[in-house]
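Listing 4. Sequential folding, example run.
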Amino acid sequence: MGKVFAKTQNVVVSATIHRDLPLEKLATKLEGAEYNPEQFPGLILKIEEPKASALLFSSGKIICTGTKSIKEAGKAIAAIVRLIEKLGLKVKGRPEIEVQNMVASGSVGGKLNLNEIVFKFENTEYEPEQFPGLVYKLPESHITFLLFGTGKIVITGAKSEKEIIDSVHVLRKQLIDAEELGEPN
């Protein structure tokens, strides 16, 4: 069998910083900020270290994306808080950070016949004329997989690294039990 793995590609977190944010002021003072309230109510902020993008809302809510680990996402939120505080806006206490979604890519270690899997597995969608991947919602879970004939996979909906790894092992066992895991390329 081929290599079975999953590697986190993107972590989305939300954070609450317990204070209102003057978005117009921030837009004029922060490098990498875009704010167009007629189009979207949040300020878009891109930071370089760690590399991330964030949406800041006047309520003090922040959505941060683009990092590759929960730890890195926490560092990005801390960097954003430091930028806000440098402008004289005090943030009381630590931000409350919550993981919203993690996206990973990986492999189940063998080829897949998506035309057979769509009939053997429930909770699937497969329209090869529109997209080459099969969408599979893992039963009794918030995890969704994109499966490709090569055995490559994309995992979405996880809230932790452990959940990503565990879900890949569950998927692999389901594929083996259904006799749907072919030899690797």
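-- end of first protein; second protein begins --
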Amino acid sequence: MSAEAIRAAGPSDLERFLPRPVDGGRVLLGITGAPGAGKSALARALVDAEPGRRGYVPMDGFHFADQELVRQGLRDRKGAPETFDAYGYADLLARLRRRPAHTVYAPAFERDLEQPLANALPVPPGLPLLITEGNYLLLDAPGWREVHAQLSEVWFVDVDPSLRVQRLIDRHVRFGKSEDAARAWVEQVDEPNARLIDATRAAADRVIDLTAFAVPGAD
């Protein structure tokens, strides 16, 4: 049975659906969906709604560096499932879920460089809710199954397809591609990934419609 779709115009619409920690534990909420659906915008908005109590740990920090993508012959598929260190991501989530008494440092992804940055995101021990977002949290494949196993809930975000595609084109142009190159990349790389991700929707705990979500800069 598929999850009921929840329409959200802002983070306040979703507060009552957030998973709650029990007995001083920590919960990990995963947010997934196709490129351009608004995953990172939603995650940041939820974290900003209660600073000091929530943390943000994106999947994109586990991109392979370009030199490794070139070595594996994957540079032209950057963003596909096999271009991430899924097992490393799962290991970090498992460590964070245990809520150690010290700060844990997670990697980030620098879009200006288009490269991952090690130890860029501090996750202090006092955060009871961590939100992670990425394309492949529900993918039934080695490494990604281990990721899913660490998450308390996974939300699948949805958005009007034409809006999502235009966001992707605009984002690629903003980070240096020509409009023609951006459209070609969306057609040849982003959209095949989007179809793969959409096939995982039925495994989500909730589906969130972000078409009217009032946060700029959606990713």
